[in-house]
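Marked as duplicate of an earlier ticket. Keeping the data here for the record.
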Amino acid sequence: MSTKIISETKQELLKRTEVKLELDHAKKPTPKGEEVLKEVATVTKKDEKLISIIKITNKFGSNIAEITANIYDNADAKTAAERINKKKLLEEERKAVYAAKKAEQEAKEKPAEEPKTEEAKE
């Protein structure tokens, strides 16, 4: 995949740079968001956490995709400007609660197992 920057617009108020790129993906399907994110990060030499992919468009039958991305100056600017996806936020909270419950169960099971191993050694 080869990538070239078409335009770069600095948006001082939002502390970001809007970048439009052209990605050539010969004989391959349109790349997924994760692949595009990595490619934009390598071309612009910025951290992936500060980049937000806005749009990936591909004309029918073409091997060239147009990408619109925002590159933020810092993480605070990104969280302030981006929309919050409530579904992802709830999913992350559920995962955190599940991980905490699992850790508690493992902590309860470990003390019960340890005395048995000590008795077996004696």
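See parent ticket for discussion. The mean pLDDT is 85.
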